[in-house]
Design brief:
mainly alpha, single chain, 223 residues, globular, 81% helix, 0% strand
Length: 223
Amino acid sequence: MSRKAWFIITIILMGSGMMAIVDMVISPNYWIKSILKLSIFIGIPLLLNLRFNYIPFKKVFFFQRHQLRIPMLLAVGVYVVIVTTYLFIGELFDFSNVTRALETDVGVTKANFIFVAIYISLINALVEEFFFRGIAFISLKNESQRHIAYSFSSIAFSLYHVGIMYNWFEVSFFLLLMFALICAGLLFNWLNDHFNSLYPSWLVHACANLAINTIGLLLFSST
């Protein structure tokens, strides 16, 4: 791999590590955490890009409206599958820690959940797509072999969520969720690769987050 490829990998690992400290050690309220995340996942990479020029903006933000038909259908399908799966098998797992962790760790409550859910579905999904797909996949793919970019981006995306959800679920469901996130990362990478744009994966990611937020709303409603 090129020196620039190792630089990109270092940026992703450092950014993910910094956010792990924010999530697991500092544990600020959700809005402070979001500001820190914007700074780490977007601000720092953009500042470094001024010097090292490693982000291909034309590929990251390329957009053609007719290309969104398949991603839109996939996004709706992902939403239906996630919510339906929860409705059918949700009772098999203990989700009691989820709302408790959201309230005590990041200050997400019934009162502000809708606002947080909208932010997570739209803005937070775009921030993560820029970092884990725009940089960890598209930028890395330009500087290394395709399979390295696919593997690294999807695994990094999954491991990043450990710091967020490490105390939400029992071990068996948590491991299943980490595997599902790797698969989701591979799907998002394929969308980027196929359409040469960040927007299709953002659309599917946003709907996946919307589905998870729908489940969260159901959990809050039951408490």
